[in-house]
Amino acid sequence: MATQPIAVPAELIAAPLxxxxxxxxxxxxxxxxxxxxxxxxxxxxxxxxxxxxVAIVHTPYSTSHQGVAPTYASPSSAHPLGxxxxxxxxxxxxxxxxxxxxxxxxxxxxxxxxxxxxLGLIAGYFRGWIDTVLSFMxxxxxxxxxxxxxxxxxxxLGKPGLDKIIIAIAATRWMDMARLTRGQxxxxxxxxxxxxxxxxxxxxxxxxxxxLLPNALGPIIVQVTLGIPAAILFEAFLSFLGIGxxxxxxxxxxxxxxxxxxxxxxxxxxxxPAIALSLTLMAFNFLGDVLRDALDPRxxx
Amino acid sequence: MTAPLLEVKDLHTQFFTDDGVxxxxxxxSFDLHEGxxxxxxxxxxxxxxxxxxxxxxxxxxxxxxxxGEIRLRGHDMVRMRPEDVxxxxxxxxxxxFQDPLSSLNPVLKNGFQIEExxxxxRHLSRKQTGARAVELLxxxxxxxxxxxxxxxxxxLSGGMRQRTMIAMGLANEPAILIADEPTTALxxxxxxxxxxxxxxxxxxxxxxxxxxxxxxxxxxxxCSRVIVMYAGQIVEQGPVEEIFGRxxxxxxxxxxxxxxxxxxxxxxxxxxxxxxxxxxxxxxTGCRFHPRxxxxxxxxFRDEPPLxxxxxxxxxxxxxxxxxxxxxxxxxxxxxxxxxxxxxxxGAGARQVG
Lengths: 301, 354
What we know:
The structure holds 2 protein chains of 2 kinds. Chain A is mainly α. Chain A has helices at 10-17, 24-34, 36-57, 90-126, 128-143, 146-157, 162-188, 192-199, 204-241, 252-260, 268-294.
């Protein structure tokens, strides 16, 4: 029997050798795609962002002009979500409201990141008196009710506006991030690779932001994703109370507050912003939960 | 002889704990010359790792160097500004650690980590550092280095990780490479490869190596001179063939005796050193080894023995010294217990001399 060389397909040989490069993000994206709920949330949030962007350049009607429709008008083809007590188009106002909510959510978290992460890194890495002072500050801020901090700040900062609201909300939220980053840093600083980077002569700033921070990024991202809906809700709450975004700029919170009086006769006025708010909060929370799982190193490898 | 590259004089490193002051390193002195490879041997807790961290200026809290000098090319690092010591770390003295997986940052690519080590001390473009990272991996014999730089540490095998660590250590062509148990976490075959690599780097690049280990075989294969530490002190130092051939301190002798031998008679029991390493908060009076020493005399309980020269370049801190024991009990019988020919210890040692 003649020995025939067996033809082995090239891909069979190559396959076990080629190691797959799976980075943090590739892996997170895969997990995201596998989870239906998170996918729906992602699609919803993408649409919301698009709507908010469109609202910058175009809304079906002016958001501040009164009487573009009959007051309390029910949904119709001209006004899909109807009109409010002043005869303003609710869809247009909802679109701009989405803008406000997203800007507040994202910008608040940007401020929280900029304040909480460096503070947490420094306190956790150096410990000693810096850590004592920061931990004390965190406890103090946790002790005062959020609404009180926000109201005091809004009053102190003067003339109400979006920037003031962002600062006020960030002032009630930075502790979460500082505490999380501090905790991560405390455990990471004892790891051998941090000692190794110290042994290679790395500067402190490089150790903090180049070696520690990338390892704490997963939990921080989750914290941000869950912090956005919290900030959005807080803004809606402040606007509902009338100390948020000044009229006539529409916010979902102030829209709901205006609609509450006519809930019996025209429920769509309060329902539209309430549903939009609920869906948005749910979408961010789902996304945060999935990211938490996806970025959890214990579930990998 | 030229001035030593590194001089350690009367170094004391202490930890101020709630239970008392721990004398981790207690008055040790030694020199390291250019291109030399020095082994520091001892049990866990003998102060060998703390010696290394003291040299690096990385003694962890609540410890610090309380006395002594560490002179690099004549400049005392103990009294330097922290920023100047940072400049020395990684540039003049590099260090590699025991577990290569936990010593590499898990979320950064291998190449990037090597580049970071370069950028800590030099202004180079990413293009230059990228090329040099590949070159360094090639030098430490990592196959397909151009691809490995794009891998994450968990994608490499243990040996490849330790090679990556060594490449990081060599990034700035340091004069001294301190290796703290670099092979302990690796397979035996990989251990041999890493040691061979270190030996070659020592010869090719003339990098001085301080090898810290509890493994006497490692020292025999790599080092030309050995320091034996016990309870924070140096008990014996000398050329490798002297230490292995005619140890002068009973601790060294016991340490050599406790190495398992392949050619040992089957039913023979493994000989361990009786007792435990001493408490470093209140160490024993006199010679610190006396509670465990089979050769002790009355004086050992009272007086601390100084390091005394027993033969050229060979010192030991012992009131008895094994020379007398060899005379009285017969050198043949006592020395037969060396971890000898079986592990190739002597062959390797002899090669170092020649």
